[in-house]
Amino acid sequence: MTLGLMALAAVLLDAWWGEPRRGHPLVAFGRLAQRIEQRLNGGGQGWRSHGVTGWCLAVLPPTLLVAGLSQVPGLGTPLAVLALYAAIGLRSLGEHAEPVMLALCREDLAEARRRVGYLVSRQTAELDDTAVARAATESVLENGSDAVFAALFWFAVAGAPGVVLYRLSNTLDAMWGYRNARFERFGWAAARIDDLLNYVPARLVALTYALLGRTRLALRCWRRQAPLWDSPNAGPVMAAGAGALAVSLGGPAVYHGERHERPHLGEGPAPVPADIHRALTLVRRGVWLWLALLIAGGLWHA
């Protein structure tokens, strides 16, 4: 079975089953990462070298194990499909974003704030309906890149070991990659490695969003606005996505009690509930485009 067909099988499994409700491997990995961080960064005293050691201890053994198992006859294909299935979160993205849209459509702002709080790290208690729609739309575009497209990219590049390496690295960034007193030094390696692994996928995602939406506007927003964003990878993704949808994203947001003046992204009106669905549709269409290209590439080289 080609990589493209294995990727298709994994996406279909995700559409059918969604994320595993019990025994998700990332839950066990999260517990392991917590123990490693407690041992190497107790009280926030760890240095960058401790963060590098922690990353290696958490990520390399599972990756090498999967690489070895992939060579076992008869095991490589099912292992690859299951690894990618466990790594992508396309259905989960919809399951988290669509309730926000539905709550806004019902004019249930309290429920919309609660639901969008599952998607974003900013404070949501004071958001109005426009700010909730903006937060959800931004999250769909950015998480589509991190949770779906980047996993597909590393699967295409390096099979099951590649997708395991990426997903575990991305998880460590979510756990350790904070710029605060506890993680400023220890989490540096996790954040930088995740930036490196997402560099190429993020730009391919930005191009995908542009091709499937308002192409000229998306490319213009990417070129002019992405350099202003503090994240080297989220900037291109969100600027191109906002342009593709012809909406305005970004702007001020409150994180952990501090107001952050974020640059504006895109052009057009502020998002409305329907734009959350449009963002999800953009991600889903992009996934099918990538799958088609992977399958076509496999057939070409067959």
TrEMBL record:
Pfam families: CobD_Cbib. GO terms for biological process: cobalamin biosynthetic process. This is Cobalamin biosynthesis protein CobD. PANTHER family: COBALAMIN BIOSYNTHESIS PROTEIN CBIB (PTHR34308:SF1). It comes from the Bacteria. Converts cobyric acid to cobinamide by the addition of aminopropanol on the F carboxylic group. Belongs to the CobD/CbiB family. GO terms for molecular function: ABC-type vitamin B12 transporter activity; threonine-phosphate decarboxylase activity. It is found in: Cell membrane. It comes from Pseudomonas mangiferae. One of its GO terms (cellular component) is plasma membrane. Keywords: Cell membrane, Cobalamin biosynthesis, Membrane, Transmembrane, Transmembrane helix. Pathway: Cofactor biosynthesis; adenosylcobalamin biosynthesis. NCBIfam families: cobal_cbiB (TIGR00380). It is a multi-pass membrane protein.
